[in-house]
Design a protein that fits this description.
Structural class: alpha/beta
Largest sheet: 8 strands, mixed
Strand order of the largest sheet: 3-6-2-1-9-11-12-10
Strand content: 25-35%
Shape: globular
Number of strands: 18
Number of helices: 12
Length: 407
């Protein structure tokens, strides 16, 4: 039975916990089958089984401390292909015609930045043909193909980006992101008591939440959704009929607020001093980071006095598969000029207009001070205030800020 072009396209993305074993694959596939029977043309995007990607990374590290990025992409993309094939097999078993596709077969074209590629175009010709033929299309997320014809991956959590990119290219009515939680919460339930589920959140706030460590959505996926105006809905596989959280355009409708506190447990702080006339250290540091393919964020450099400037740079441990070797080379190359501070964490407050007034920043500083927490660094943007703290104090910082602004 062929699909009608009048049937709306629905994209459903299932995370690693939703496909962790055969029973969970059956449950997720039954939900996709229900959506198909309800009159939707369905595209499913799947992650690798929970824990599989980490095991593959560890196996590569047992071979060498400097695995080649291209080969890491070949290795890590296997997990999503496994999930896609099993999901398609289950759907066919349930009587729903289905076909599995790799990211390349689905037409996801990326740049050539291995292990952290960006999607530059989606050509979903095979997806459309399969939908017209009445099939549910199951796509391995997290992966694409570069213009050099190499397999690429989109960074940890990149299956979200695959789903949103396909939803935008197919003009889907919405993109539903399924996981083991029933929406976006104001804080990590493992760290704070009774965090609040948000009914809706703006694209900008959600992107900052994701970049700050909230694990429900990948930052690049929200960026894609904002660009195309694709409505996202974060929902639970366990309770698929619960409302979840809508992520959409709320620009101009929000007053300054703090919607959540997110944390990234494993970051490294790079701190150094440089001659302000030449900025030599920042230049050398950035050139080294580029050569070592070290992923970094939140660079700041300012003049302390007429003799020197101070810089700081954050290195997230995830996705830097060669971190130990890279930090060793940085330390040796910039000995005496660069201080590497390990065992750090980033704790971020997110909300619309969060830095428009001093009140929020001052209150946050006071809350941390009362807990005996002296931040190592602070970075701000229009929607975020991030504090870098010793990792052992991360939980206390999250609880203090969440209690002060959310509870």
């Amino acid at each position: 039975m062929k699909s009608s072009n009048l049937e709306p396209v629905l994209v459903m993305k299932f995370g690693g916990t939703s496909v962790a074993d055969a029973e969970r694959v059956r449950r997720a596939a039954a939900l996709a089958a229900l959506r198909r029977r309800q009159g939707n043309r369905v595209v499913v995007v799947v992650s690798a089984r929970s824990g599989l990607t980490d095991r593959l990374i560890e196996e590569a590290r047992q071979v060498t401390s400097r695995p080649e990025p291209r080969e890491m992409d070949m290795l890590l993309s296997a997990g999503e292909r496994l999930s896609a094939a099993l999901f398609s097999i289950m759907l066919n078993h349930l009587g729903i015609p289905a076909v599995s596709l790799t990211g390349s077969q689905a037409g996801i074209i990326t740049d050539d930045q291995h292990t952290n590629a960006r999607i530059i175009e989606v050509r979903p010709y095979r997806v459309r043909l399969a939908l017209e033929g009445g099939h549910v299309v199951v796509v391995g997320g997290f992966q694409g193909v570069s213009f050099r014809k190499d397999v690429t991956t989109l960074g940890r959590g990149g299956s979200d980006t695959s789903a949103v990119a396909l939803a935008a290219a197919l003009d889907a009515v919405r993109c539903e992101i399924y996981s083991d939680v029933d929406g976006i919460y104001s804080g990590d339930p493992r760290l704070v008591d009774q965090p609040k589920r948000l009914d809706q959140i703006s694209y900008q706030e959600m992107q900052e939440m994701a970049e700050s460590g909230a694990k429900v959505l990948h930052p690049q996926s929200v960026e894609f959704a904002k660009l195309k105006g694709t409505i996202l809905c974060a929902r639970s596989t366990e309770d698929a009929e619960a409302p979840g959280t809508l992520i959409r355009n709320l620009e101009g409708r929000l007053r300054p607020r703090v919607v959540g506190v997110a944390s990234e447990e494993k970051v490294v702080l790079l701190a150094g001093r440089a001659d302000p006339a030449t900025c030599q250290l920042p230049k050398e540091l950035l050139e080294l980071c580029r050569r070592l393919r070290l992923r970094t964020k939140q660079l700041s450099f300012h003049l302390q006095d007429q003799r020197e400037g101070i810089l700081s740079l954050i290195v997230p441990e995830k996705e830097n598969y060669h971190l130990t070797a890279a930090l060793q080379e940085l330390g040796e190359s910039l000995a005496g000029h660069l201080r590497i501070v390990p065992d750090c964490a980033a704790v971020s407050m997110i909300g619309s207009g969060i830095t428009e007034h001093y009140d929020i920043l001052l209150e946050a500083a006071s809350l941390l001070e009362r807990e005996g927490i002296a931040p190592l660094a602070c970075h701000t943007s229009s929607f975020r205030i991030s504090w870098i703290v010793p990792r052992r104090q991360m939980a206390a910082a999250v609880r203090a800020l969440h209690g002060g602004f959310i509870d």
